[in-house]
Design goal:
elongated; 8 strands; mainly beta; 102 residues
Amino acid sequence: MAIETLFNQAVVLTSTADLVVQVGAKHSYANTSGAKPWKLSILFDGVLVNFATGGGAPTDAPSVFVSMTGVSAGAHTVTVTWYGHSSMSISGINMFVLGKYK
């Protein structure tokens, strides 16, 4: 199992703002050899800010949400990573980043 980067999104703020990030996906695998663990993570400027984990169901639709207040002006990066067994397929990946200037 390896960590895979799904999104690497630049976010440039002209002044301090609040940000909301939401990520969703769907995964599946053949449940012939037991449960497979997975982890869907959001990193902001390389720092883990939220994640979802699982491993029981052969199909699932994980979603992760984070709200950050007072993010400084400048260039930032939102990264979404996936960690799962090599037999898993992930699809329907989506992300949005919303900002509200103060």
